[in-house]
């Protein structure tokens, strides 16, 4: 009996593999019946592969949610079913549906899912399933949606040897050694998950690229992956190594203006399209962090990007050229470097080139001002790159829901064409009327059974996709939707979990880098605090370069009296951040060196405010633990315990961050820890020795 009970309990445990596509039986019988009435059959007009995926997903989803199979049938003379149809000339009420948009309407007592393309219908099928998963009514359903951004991409930083740069969820999901003969069924589940949130492109390999993917052997493997992605409306892209003509092509140069080099890329590109007819294009990291690039030959980024655009020729592909660059020799402020290299090239890029810009000017910190290139390159379509994998956000240990971070950047006003020229509108092309637009998220996906290591990391993958589709969705709405689909539909628990998620990023910022501190994390590994780091491979890899703490105060003066990086922004933005008296406290130390005893708008001095944030931020992790404890009755036990354990660890590490930072800054500020907080119980040396243990992980 006991054994049986244990077994029964075990079979219910949720290992997270199914992500937000669980399709568990709806427990409320009345609700189930209402849905069944509207889903008596599925009819498909057409038989393209993407349409087939839509029908298959609906069958699988409805069977799980409703507890019985919904048959495929012809709609002739029937009602109460779901009809999928591609209508190239379809219009929605407001205007034309975009090529990937969908419309769900009620037509003669049937639910009709229409799109101009098969992909549109597939997105509509997922949208309909989402209605059931979140328990919305289906009567008189009328929804229409078109993605605001055209290229919605995941960037994998995966290497051929199966490791993942900055990956915290196991190894790469791509098993190159098995491909192309064995195709892991997991690839299809990956494609389903992406399609369900509208992602339509995946760069399969690391931006610090290996040339190997361009070899005939690997092209067959990549083609096998592309074959699995295609029926889900997803195209495959590659990161390329700039030096490939030399390393694998046997040429003596990789100069983009050399005719032999150009021919080599054209030939390779043609090879790729032979193997993968719908190949998406190239992503390039060049002349950045030691990677080769056109500057090695005295050429610029536009020369390099345009050469690849030329190689793409009449193939339907694009070049995404990254602006994440900083010079080998760092004099000055790294904040300004990408701007200085790229701004003069605006207007020089070929039409197939998009420049891919990180959300902030430094490097995926927990809070950054928006990158000054947004709004500064009106003639060039810019791809916004965000990092989903939590390199600077506590890996897969800390619970940090990233939608608020993404939104903060998307909603920032660049003022480039007057008020309302937000980063979102620069990126989606509306501000400067671009024909193409893109957004990319560095994936947090790995071979762990639950894909993302931290179970709540799934929400970051989900939120990225939903915002890539529609940047106007709110963080709160996405958190609630994901929670309902993934964890529980019990209303109070949904609210508690979504609330915890939405607040989690600010809490993380408070106990790690409050008030605009940045880049004070552990060297290379990028984990834990190391604000005392004064020596590294380059000055701009240290912490002291960024916080500039001294006996007088703290923070990087980027106004005219300092590096003047602030001058890269529009005058309205300069005004918003230029005065330390009025600059939002969240950005204060990004732009100002502030005296320790300087009173802030909160009434506390800088030193007291800093301590206040480190201490209350840490205490907030206890609050997160309490919130999580409350939802226990409504959450799968395996999932509950997983998150509970990680939160315990997160608390311990919040204390580590707090102690390290207040003790270190105290050596310069020479101020006591303000009441009611108690000084750390350990010494700075003790905390420093913890970092050394972490550094062994390098
Ligand atoms: C940094 C990562 C490094 C990446 C680099 C990039 O630490 O591993 O290669 O970004 O985006 O944040 O190229």
TrEMBL record:
Q: Which residues are the signal sequence here?
A: none
Q: Which UniProt keywords apply?
A: Carbohydrate metabolism, Glycosidase, Hydrolase, Polysaccharide degradation, Xylan degradation
Per UniProt, residues of the Glycosyl hydrolase family 67 C-terminal domain are 452-675
In its UniProt record, a GO molecular function of this protein is: alpha-glucuronidase activity
Which chain regions cross the lipid bilayer?
none
List of catalytic residues:
289 (proton donor), 363 (proton acceptor), 391 (proton acceptor)
Output the Gene Ontology cellular-component terms.
extracellular region
Swiss-Prot/TrEMBL GO biological process terms: xylan catabolic process
Every copy of the Glycosyl hydrolase family 67 catalytic domain together lies at 132-451
In this chain the Alpha glucuronidase N-terminal domain maps to 19-128
EC identifiers of the protein: 3.2.1.131
Superkingdom, natural source:
Bacteria
Name the catalysed reactions: Hydrolysis of (1->2)-alpha-D-(4-O-methyl)glucuronosyl links in the main chain of hardwood xylans
Protein family membership: Belongs to the glycosyl hydrolase 67 family.
What's the subunit arrangement here?
Homodimer.
| Name of protein | Xylan alpha-1,2-glucuronidase
The protein's organism comes out as Hymenobacter jejuensis
